[in-house]
Amino acid sequence: MRKYTIIGCLAVGIILLFIGTVIIPSSGQNIEKTSSSISRGNTLYVGGSGPGNYTGIQDAINDSSDWDTIFVYHGMYFENVIIDRSIVLIGENKNTTIIDGGSDWSGGNAVTIDSNWVNISGFTIQNSINGSRPYSGISIYYSCYNNITGNIITHNDFGIHLSNNSNYSTISKNIFTNNSWGIAILHNSNFNNIINNNITKNKIGIELFDHSDFNNIINNTITNNKNGNGIYLSGSHNNTISSNTISDNYYDSIYLSFSDNNTISNNTITNSFNGIMLWYGDNNTISENTITNNDHNGIDIENGNYNNIINNTISNNVHNGINPTHSDLNTIINNTIVNNNDYGVSLEYSNGNDITSNNISKNKLGMYIRLSTDNTILKNNFLKNKKDAFFNNSKENTWNHNYWNRPRILPKLIFGTIDYDPFTMVWFNIDWRPALKPYDIP
Fold first, then answer.
1. DSSP assignment of 131-168, as one string?
2. Using CA atoms, how far apart are residues 193 and 216, in angstroms rounded to an integer?
3. Residue 438 reports pLDDT greater than 70
């Protein structure tokens, strides 16, 4: 039974604040199920040895009222729990208080939240798997203001699944492992906080899909997700991805598709395919990240315009540091792009980009430009690359005030080629005023 619509989400939020945590001593197993009260409701007990305690979590929920607390003692609970009222559900110990969704016997979501203002903490939630349709460890549907914290969520199709205008929830300090998706936020689910979770050995770490906007993904460890991306955004905008450690994922650490106005900052991104892949995304900001040792490119942009790439350290990637293709009017400023095996910056079919004040050093080729025009390359340091710059069929770019390995008084020639079928001609661009000394680029 759904007790609130999305309008209810907002109304309840204005009326009251939800109770967070209730401290219950583990020695209280003989306390009756309703003998203790809290400021907003009663406390009901499941398991343990109290004569009035419930044996099933769902039975206690059915007898509870809004703002009650249900405390569950350690044990294995084979249930598909449906929470249709605003309660606090607390497990005695996250390692030993287990809700099993029953993949081998009936199947279903281990926990379904069908109300607002629900708190869940202290459980292992497992085995919601089905071959014909995906189930969730915790399914949050059309529900707001929930707090899921301090759980182990494992061996489910979705670890946690928020969908259909599920807003303003916090998912924090959980361990997600061996799920198909660690966390999925879908279908207009906005303003959620994903904070301080350990998300490892799933197929996909975190997915945001279909206008799931203004969510915060902060300070998570997202590693070893073995069949997909660390974080995947599709059609989702104005999200913040910050201060995460993202490594050793099978595909890209962060993949954005048709997603605009997102901020990706202060992440450590290593040992995936691409560090960051941006595909058909505009007006995103990628800043202050450390992106190293990826199997393809540090930052790969395809058909992305008006993006800002600022103050990143991009190093030791197998191919290119920054790789825009069919991408126009992007800003690449104040980055350190070093020790990439192929190109520091590669532009192909990309026009009107601003590449200013970068340290481009110790790459096989500092900058490569192909079939791209009207780009500005200004005040960069080109240092100790095997070759600093080269272009192909790209005559109309502006090079100015760059530092080229040593002080230069005369203009610097940048050589390239122009194809006039069946001939290829040597051509050159000119940096008319190269810098006399390297720039101090932080």
1. SSS--EEEEEES--S-EEES-EEESSSEEEEEESS--S
2. 5
3. yes
Paired with 355 in beta bridges are 332, 377
Question: 258 with 281: CB under 8 angstroms?
Answer: yes
Token pair, residue 219, equals: 């300070």
270 pairs with which residues across the strands?
247, 292
Domains 1-251 and 285-442 share a fold: yes
Query: And the tokens for 203?
Result: 């197929």
Assigned CATH for 285-442: 2.160.20.10
> What's the chain's length in residues?
442
Q: Model-level pTM?
A: 0.91
Q: How far is CA 84 from the centre of its chain?
A: 29
Token pair for residue 206?
């975190």
pLDDT for res 4: 39
More confident residue, 403 or 103: 403
Alpha-carbon distances of 81 from 100, 102, 112, 138, 147, rounded to whole Å: 10, 11, 6, 9, 17
| Residue-wise pLDDT tens digits, 336-355 | 999 999 999 999 999 999 99
pLDDT at 402 over 80: yes
Domain segments of the chain as ranges? 1-251, 285-442
Architecture of the domain made up of 1-251 = 3 Solenoid (2.160)
Residue 438 burial (CB count, 10 A): 18
Q: Are strands 254-257 and 231-234 parallel, antiparallel or unpaired?
A: parallel
List the end-to-end C-alpha distance of the chain, in Å, as a whole number: 57
pLDDT tens-digit readout, 367-378: 999 999 999 999
H or E element in which residue 10 lies: helix 6-15
